[in-house]
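User: I'm preparing a small set of examples for a lab meeting where we compare how different chains pack in three dimensions. I only have the primary sequence for this one, and I'd like the structure in token form so I can line it up with the others. Please keep the answer compact; I'll paste it straight into my notes.
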Amino acid sequence: MTDRIELVQVNQLTAADEVLWNGFVAARSDLVGPYFDFRYVQAIAPGVPNSGVARFYEGDQVAGYFAYQKRGDILLPIGAPLSDYHAVISSADFVADFDELMRLTRTRRVEFQGLVGTSAGRGAHMGLTRRVADATHGFDHWWATQDAANHKFFKNVSRCQRNVEKDFGGFEFSWEKVTPELMDWTINLKRDQYRRSGMHDVFGCRWTREMLDRLAALETPDFGLRCGVLRDKGRLVAVEISLVQGEDVHLWFPAYDPEYGRYSVGILLTVAIIKNTEALGLKRFDFGTGGEDYKSPMTTPGGVCLEGEVEIRRSLQSRALDAAGVFLPKERFEKVKISLRRRVKVIRATEITLNGWGRALTDLGRRAVMRTGVTKAYAGVLKKTAALGAVTFVG
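Assistant: Understood. Below is the structure token output for the 395-residue chain.
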């Protein structure tokens, strides 16, 4: 039970806080991975607008921490939407008082996209499965195990590897620190991908790039950004920027030169990372929770996290989306609504200006109409939703 909450800046956390934080994480088997590391929050906070940490107290003792960022009257985990996982850093049985936290931060909703371990109480949430390639027993064991269950997929990977050998004499692989040049190359390709697909450009707001630059600047051997790289006679073919902590790797931002796309170089790079980092002691490779087809054949379930929200009252935007349901069949509408809500959450987390909100929501409405073929009436509801979002959520 929470008796008191204290709001502080990350740079106000003390050495005693760091010891407590690390102790909570070490005592829980579900808080595995770099996002729960004290150094992650410490590194990114200076570049994340409107961020802070809630200290939860039971009596006079600190019982937990929640690192957050505020966007208007919405509270999000720090680093959202880039931070794939987050948690109240506490003992496993601690229940955070989100109502009091919302009162203190003058917010009306807490949104999360990968909440691990702590019950979120009331509100709408769904379970998401973490996908992990577990190479604890070595690369060969991982390959054989996954190949036995997904032979067609791995047969195709082997075929692509042979084609690369035949056409290029193979690619050179390296595992390296993330330099500004590698960061630029990867982010430029990701932004091109966002434009082509209609996804929101999470790097258009600039602070997300600064967040990654701060992680790249860390000089700690067991924590920070690293990347797997494939080169063709010096030319960059594919890069995957990853966040590393000890034996755990979170595969974060993959990008590849489209001219090599038919060789499935993104998948080849992921396989090369798992294979070539075995000697470095890296054992678990977290792919996140997305539904990409390539993830399931390469991974096994690595635990459950929650996507959803806890709110004081129902949002105007939710009511606008619900009203739109009259224009679509129920099953189809539910899928569209979930997709739109996820996209709006990404926009909310990244955009901190009215102009950014306006552009992003206009693009979102246009894409929704193109993909669903909905009526003009539904398009009008989307416009109203965009307007409500711009007024309500920009901070």
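A couple of notes for your slides: The longest helix spans residues 330-350. The chain has 13 helices and 13 strands.

User: Perfect, thanks.
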